Amino acid sequence: MPVTDSLKPGVRRRELLGWAAYDFANSGYTTVVLTAVFNAYFVGVVAGGASWATFAWTLAVAVSSLIVAVVSPPLGAWADRRGARKTLLAVSTVGCVLATAALASAGPDTILLAMLLVIVSNVCYCIGESLIASFLPDLARPEFIGRVSGWGWGVGYFGGMFTLGLSLAWLLSAASRGTTAALAVPQTMLITAVVFGLASLPTFFLLRVRPARRGDPAAGTAEPGIWQQLRRSIGSLHAFPDFRRLLLCMTCYQAGIAVVIALAAVYAEQQMGFSQTDTMMLVFTVNIASAVGAFGFGSLQDRMGHRLALALTLVGWVAMTLIAGLGESRVQFWVAAVLAGLCIGASQSCGRAMVGLLAPEPRLAEFYGLWSLAVRVAAVIGPITYGAVTWASGGNHRLAILGTGVFFAAALAVLRTVDVERGARLRSV
User: Fold this and answer.
1) Is residue 320 exposed (0-12), middle (13-18) or buried (19+ Cβ within 10 Å)?
2) In the prediction, which pLDDT does 220 show?
3) 3-state helix, strand, coil in the chain (%, to 5)
């Protein structure tokens, strides 16, 4: 099927390119800064390998997630009222790029500066992620929204691999420049920032802002405060019961995904004895599988139905936790890693598409802000639960990863109560 057949009337192919370019651009931040490179540098070099180093890292990420959970819905509502989604997206992008570049100055004994920059960069990244997602319903026909969402996520994983590849090439060439890989890590923050900034430019040149939709709150009315707007946004969910249940479902499974993203490398090293090189290969493998899952599952969910498609990915997540938690060999862990990659790509793409189907058109940025709230609350709950289980069990990572399966099973139970067709009708009322 031609690409244009999946787009709404009046939407040109170059707009889809501009929209997907942002997924490509921002994925390098999560891959390099939060998952594969800077987190280990922070613990080992910035914090000097202190006993509290890992806690300091998780604290910075948790604080940023809580900030995003509070400010995303109000900012989204403000952007909807003012027609300023693209402007706010530009501000958040510049903020993330500058804060990421500033991380190049992080080194021994700069713990507070590094934590502050991680918090600022991650807050800006998350706000940008929810804003770019809010353009999805503007671009895709409802019957093809899963496919278009999958294209974006798939392109994003390749962007993550591209930035990680450049960073690893820089680290591996450190010896030839007469330095060590540890000393070369800060420069990878500059690489990540430059790729993010340059790759996002097509978004701002090609992506159009549609006129305000009927039903938008009138401009010029008194602006509510952040807490007042947050209460309004959450309170309004009573009129959208299926969207509310979807958010609860997403909070459950995103808590499990947050564990995989934040702690897969820790599990690989602590439980399976992986070296740093093995771990990097693991990250590449998971990203490739994630791209396949996003691209391949996008069209499938449009055909089979979004709820069934998401249910299948949640079953896959439960299977992954069982394989990883009960498996004894490296082969079994690699199988679990590939399955996790497929499920990440599919479930992330499917969730974003379902939000687009259930969110009322005059309030897209606000409702995608609520999606971001659910994801960020989950990003706190999941890793903290994993850490608590390992602490209470004397460092039993197998028990912790098996416990993570409970999040996915709970999401399945909640998903059964979501009626996508009814929710899609209510969004137009």
Assistant:
1) buried
2) 46
3) 85, 0, 15
Among 189-198, 211-220, 327-336, 404-413, the least confident range: 211-220
Long-range contacts of 228-231, Cβ-Cβ distance < 8 Å, separation of 24 or more? 229/73, 229/74, 229/77, 229/78, 230/70, 230/73, 230/74
User: Which of 357, 83, 87, 373 lies closest to 217 in space, CA to CA?
Assistant: 83
Query: What phi and psi, each to the nearest 5 degrees, are found at residue 271?
Result: -100, -35
Under 8 Å between Cβ of 283 and 167: no
| In contact, 144 and 150? CB cutoff 8 Å | no
Dump pLDDT digits (tens) for 11-27: 889 999 999 999 999 99
- Cα–Cα dist 229/179, whole Å: 51
Q: What is the Cα–Cα distance from 27 to 255, expressed in whole angstroms?
A: 19
Q: How many CB atoms lie within 10 A of CB 205?
A: 9
Residue spans of the domains in the chain: they are 10-203+225-426
Please list, in sequence order, all residues whose beta carbon lies within 8 angstroms of the beta carbon of residue 302, skipping any fewer than 6 positions away: 143, 144, 145, 146, 147
Question: How far is residue 365's CA from residue 85's CA, in Å, rounded to a whole number?
Answer: 7
Q: Is the pLDDT of residue 76 over 50?
A: yes
Q: What is the rounded average pLDDT of the residues 101-114? A: 93
The alpha carbon of residue 421 and the mean position of all alpha carbons in its chain are separated, in whole angstroms, by 26
Taken in order 132, 135, 136, 139, is the CA torsion positive or negative? negative
Select from 156, 150, 184 the least CA-distant residue to 170: 184
Q: How far apart are CA 196 and CA 63, in angstroms?
A: 23
Name which of 58, 95, 60 is nearest 75 in CA terms.
95
Above pLDDT 70, what percent of the chain? 92
Token duo for residue 278? 């093995």
pLDDT in tens, 373-399: 899 899 888 888 887 887 888 878 788
What is the spatial distance between Cα 97 and Cα 189, in angstroms, rounded to a whole number?
Answer: 9
Residue 4, pLDDT above cutoff 50: yes
Residue 58 scores a pLDDT above 50: yes
CATH of domain 10-203+225-426: 1.20.1250.20
DSSP codes joined into one string, 199-217:
HTHHHHHHPPPPPPPTTPP
Structure tokens at 351: 């969730």
AA identity, residue 260:
V
